[in-house]
């Protein structure tokens, strides 16, 4: 038998006995991993905070890893891959120069690399490493570290962290998990986001990790209060210059999820604002109104909806600025008058609020909120008899009083039951 025939026969046998799976596509060989890359080169940012710092894109079951260089090394999210520290040494870094590890949250693909680092003999013996995690991080993870004799720095958000000689603000951004944090560097307008914001995906609100959609929206609002251009995410490649847009895209998708709307549904900003208001998501209402006003400045409906949301959020001075603009053009707008009275009431300017309620009710006596708020203002001014003459307030007051009586009666009955048992 010739050598050529042997090879052909072997190939036929391989094909004959190879298990066939319908529609299975056998993957090509995985491309070489690029290894550690310069953050400064990726973002095209000059400056000391990133010039020597490195980025390792995640693969398999690992997150991205960031090595911030300066007076020492700080690792942000050591991932879940045992090779990262060996690869770092190939660049001329000494792993013993790593003095701090920051975790954006406690998911395995972000944090399990901690244990690979702690197994390095000198680290295990000296235990001179600061591990920074949110106070709500996984209890089992924290317990294991403490049992090994390593100390944790637990943060809540709002702290300024010295990382390799540079100041980063810790921002609590719950939602994906309850313990999610982002790290913000104001000078470079850069934020490390973990899984809170990703360039080409939306993280789930992981209920097992304490995540929730409402919290997620709150966390993103915290980020949007900052001036952000660049994003170093937990997965995929960093984002340069368009970071704000990426955050807003994430925010908008999550808002659509909150009101069960898909990208295929056609909905105006004001329709979205109305549905979000029904859910009590007032910060998102303000966002939608702002988007509408950017497209159509002076839209009275958007201005009024925004003012109502701001009032309910306790941002009464901002609401008054908008309401004054409305009333300058529509002095007979009964709902705007009632809203300004409400805002003044929120600022404890009870006497000043009364004329606005009176003017609103003169134009439209059926505005129940104006009646109730007027009754509240009169009550705060110790004009109780006048307040009780307002039927809507009297009913609302009686219902609240009845609820309090019922509550006390239930507590009394429960106490008697506890004593008898």
UniProtKB/TrEMBL annotation:
Residues 1-21 have a biased composition (Basic and acidic residues). Residues 1-22 are annotated as: Disordered. Gene3D superfamilies: Ribonuclease Z/Hydroxyacylglutathione hydrolase-like, Tetratricopeptide repeat domain. Signal peptide: none annotated. The keyword Ligase does not apply. Residues 62-235 form the Metallo-beta-lactamase domain. The keyword Cell inner membrane does not apply. InterPro entries: Metallo-B-lactamas, RibonucZ/Hydroxyglut_hydro, Sec-metab_biosynth-thioest, TPR-like_helical_dom_sf, TPR_rpt. It holds the Pfam family Lactamase_B. Keywords: TPR repeat. This is MBL fold metallo-hydrolase. TPR repeats lie at residues 334-367.
